[in-house]
Structures are given as structure tokens and as C-alpha cells.
Amino acid sequence: MTITLHDALTSTSERMPDPWATGQVDLYERELSQHFGTTEAIAVASGTAALHCALIALGVGKDDEVLVSAAASPSSVAPILYLGAAPVFVDSGIGGISLDLQDVASKITERTRAIIAVHLWGRTGDVVRLVEFAGSHGLNVVEDARDAVGSRFDDQYAGTFGDLVCMSTSDRQILWSGQGGFFLTDDENLAHRCRAARSHWQTPPPGHQQHAELGHNYSLAEPLAAIARFNLVRFDKLLSDRARQAGLLAELLVGTPRIRLTESVRFEDPNHQYPLFRLELPRPREFSARLAALGVLNCVGSFLTVAADKVPLFGRYADDGCLRAQNYVDSSLAIILTQQDTDDRIRQIASVIDREAQTWAPE
Questions:
Q1: Closest alpha carbon to 69 in 80, 79, 59, 77
Q2: What tens digit of pLDDT does each residue of 41-74 get?
Q3: pTM metric for this prediction
Q4: Distance (Å, rounded) from C-alpha 206 to C-alpha 212?
Q5: Above pLDDT 90, what percent of the chain?
Q6: CB neighbour list of residue 346: distance below 8 Å, 6 or more residues apart
Q7: CA 54 to CA 320: how far, in whole Å?
Q8: What is the pLDDT of residues 199-212, one digit of tens each?
Q9: Residue 127 — pLDDT band, cuts 50, 70, 90?
Q10: Nearest to 299 by CA among 291, 349, 250
């Protein structure tokens, strides 16, 4: 029997209110673990909550340093500040996707506690090299894979390489639940600490006292877990549908001047969360803003995405040295699609992009 989203929500709502209910969340966590092939999965209220708990689990605290991709959104950096630690921005490698390991090496100090690898726009880069490099320096890696649910590297899911992965299931993600997030890990101790951190340390790790450390109210609501479970069942179809949408858009833009598809790095199979193009036009940020004004949703033009080291909030931590990351973000056209976008809508998007590119004035 096919279960609809309405059925899932009705079944859940009939048991509410129940302050002790975790049935949907418990099932969801088991299903996540099975789907992604990890020993532990922990559901939380958002991708940002997941990242915050991950850093707590790793013991990051006041005056520590966390290396983080400069090609990232503010929500990938803010949890570092929540803990009184300092973000240290790392530049991108050639092409913008992978981290520059030479820059990573130059910025490791005795205060460095972890590395956050941000899979911006669903692209992992060579995450294997990064994890191996971090391990050789005794550093933990947190994969911020909120945009990369379903992306793969060397036929392995993004988020299953580092010590902890943080995912989002907001409505901008392919696996969506309105709002929410989750962790994946194979480290039982880290999983215990993440569970404690999401619920005021009320369920402490084995051998620890209740409320012995500061935790937060980051539990995932039962109705959102029901939505997430419904979408996890059909996740492979959601991924294939998005790949088809992205492929259609790329095909329609093949002849568009100075806009080219961003190629995957070797062994990378992105989830096509955002069909991603490289703008070789003058004033690329203005071009993205122009598209947004014409109804073509995109990350830079619609949400004013900039490299994290250019965000005013983080200005005191920036040294203006992450030029490749800044150029990568500024010159990227990351189109925002949903499962509601029909082929006709995608053709309309392509038509607007092509027309504007054809007439975009040089500097």
C-alpha cells in the first residue's frame, strides 16, 4: 500500500500532543542509518543545529580555532562563534571546489581543534584527500553537507568520510521536511555526545551525569520527522528527478555565451542540488542579481551569497587572502530549483538566462 504525505501527517497528528513522543524520530534515525550505511544517525531541528552540536561533541570551546571553508554560507561559520571559538578561513583550490591543502597546512596552530569542510552547492571536491590530510595532523573533520545530501565521491555518499557529517532538510534541499537536519557518524561516543547536546544534556553519554554540560533544545518535531521519512522512501526518485532537471537546463544553455557548466572533479557525482554554472561575464554578481529580479532564483542574486570571509560579522577573522573562494562564489550561478519546476518552467528559466547573457554589456 502506498502511503501519502497526508497519511503520514494524519497518523502522527492523531497521537499529539504527547510530550514524550519520539516514535517518528526513532524510526527516521534508523532509516537514515540504513540508507547511508552508517552506524549512527541523529535527527535535529536544523542543519545549523547539527553543526553546533557536532562542535560541542568534539569539545570545541573558548579560544579554540576551527578551520572552515571560505566558500561557505554564514550558517556554516556561526556555530563556531556560538562556542567562543574563532573561525580560520581556508581558501579554495584551483577551480573553487576543493580546499587548498597548502592553505590548510599554513593555518594549523596549536589552537586548531577541527576542520569544517563545507560542500557548498552540493559539491564535495576531493574530500578523501582532505580527510587523510587532517588525520595525519590529528584533526577531526566535520562535513557540512547540508547542500550535498545524496552527493557521492568515489561512489560513497558525501558525509560518510569525516568524523561527523551535518545535513539539512530545509525546503531548499532535495530531501526536505520543511525544516530539520541530522548527523551521521560511525563513532558511538560522538553520537552519544550529539544526542546529549540536542536535548539539554538530559540524555547524557553513558557514565556521565545528567545536565553535567550545557545542551540545547534542538530536537526534531515529530511531524517534521514524518515528512522526512516520507521523502526518504522516495529519495532516489527525488535525486533522479533533480538530475534530469539539471541536465535539461544544462542542455538548453549549451550555446549561451560566457556561461558554462561547472564540471565535477574526478570521482565526484554531485546531487545537482543547484544546477551550477560558471559565469565568464563581466560583473557576474550584477548579472546574478539581474536574473533574480527577472524571477530566476539563484543563490548569489536572490540570497546575496558571498564568501564567508567577506561577511561583515566575520570581518575580524578575515585576512582577505581567500581570493579563489571569493572568485568562485562571485562567478557561480547556482540555480534554485524545486520538484515543482516543470520542463516548461525550466525552458523559461533557460530562455531568460540566454537572453540576458546575449545582451549583457561588457565593462
A1: 77
A2: 999 999 999 999 999 999 999 999 999 999 999 9
A3: 0.93
A4: 12
A5: 82
A6: 245, 248, 249, 252, 337
A7: 27
A8: 999 989 998 999 99
A9: confident
A10: 291
In the numeric block, the cell 526518485 is attached to 237
Query: In this structure, what C-alpha cell is assigned to residue 352?
Result: 531568460
Residues, the chain: 363
pLDDT computed for residue 1 by the predictor: 46
Cα angle 214, 216, 219 (rounded to 5 degrees) comes to: 145
The single residue listed with the C-alpha cell 558525501 is 158
Q: How far apart are CA 89 and CA 107, in angstroms?
A: 9
pLDDT, the chain, mean: 93
| 135 contact partners, CB below 8 Å, separation of at least 6 | none
Distance CA 327, CA 324 (A): 5
Cell of 80: 563556531
Q: Which three cell numbers stand for residue 166?
A: 551535518
Q: Do the Cβ atoms of 320 and 89 come closer than 8 Å?
A: no
Distances (CA, A) of 42 to 27, 31, 181, 198, 203: 11, 11, 9, 9, 13
Q: Which three cell numbers stand for residue 21?
A: 513522543
Give the closest residue to 326 by CA, choosing from 114, 120, 107: 120
